[in-house]
Amino acid sequence: MPELPEVETVRRGLAATITGRTIADVEVLHARPVRRHLPGRDDFETTLVGRTFAEPRRRGKYLWLPFVDGDAVLAHLGMSGQFRLEPSEVPEAPNTRIRLQFSDGEPELRFIDQRMFGGLSLSPGGAELPAEIAHIARDPFDPEFVVSDVVRRLRQKRTSVKRALLDQQLISGIGNIYADEALWRARMHYARATQTLPVARARELLRHAADVMRSALDDGGTSFDSLYVSVNGSSGYFDRTLAVYGRDGQPCPRCGTPIVREPFMNRSSYRCPRCQPARLYLR
Ligand SMILES: [Zn+2]
């Protein structure tokens, strides 16, 4: 699943290309990507026509496309969802699922999703914040993100620091990649108990998480998977500067020790055994 920088890259691309445009026609090519739109596929095709997009918004990894009428389209990118703006005469890419045409002409907006874990749905009244994602915590780029609140709640949790970083109801936007990168920058083992973290270390970890995501965003998102592309089809390249994620066996950029990969929550965690030793934190 794309993390905050990738989703923000998509949001910016959409902001520049669909804001202020009015939908003229909607074509749903496969029912599965609109399964969360409970009134059904035909309703999705008709209810959007005539509506005008306001600027797309994001919270954490979640993206929504508000309309000026106060409703919104909630966009789940899932594992492989992407948007592309293309002239309507350009042949559909494989796995094109939804096409939106605009009253001002070209280009049209296409939603492409190979694995179809993602999709689009109308969120009535969702322009400010869709009810479906109201439980998601603010992310570190949110002007109303309060570090001291998150630090306090993080230290009250009885869990490991990596689980806390991945908890979207504590802090949103961080997934496996940026959690591992932030922990490496903070020289912290992923299994360290949150209750053992001094306030200063917790603050430091959150600062690293924000910094690593900001760097990725500056680079246009991570292209660890060719399925993630920004709206014009170009991919980011931040993967070249990842320190630990996906780099097992390669030298730690700081100390040269080979990075290790360990099972974690049905996925993997990457760490430098020297910079991020287990010490007494494993329990
Ligand atoms: Zn190291």
Compact overview of the structure:
By secondary structure, the chain is α+β, with helices and mostly antiparallel strands. It is built from 6 helices and 10 strands.
Protein model, in words:
By secondary structure, the chain is an alpha+beta fold. It is built from 6 helices and 10 strands; from the N terminus they run αβαβββββββααααββ. Strands 1-6-7-5 form a 4-stranded antiparallel β-sheet. Strands 2-3-4-8 form a 4-stranded antiparallel β-sheet, covered by helices on one side. Strands 9-10 form a two-stranded antiparallel sheet. β3 and β4 form a beta hairpin. It is elongated and about 60 Å long. About 2% of the residues have low confidence. The site of zinc ion (ZN) has 7 residues, from loops.
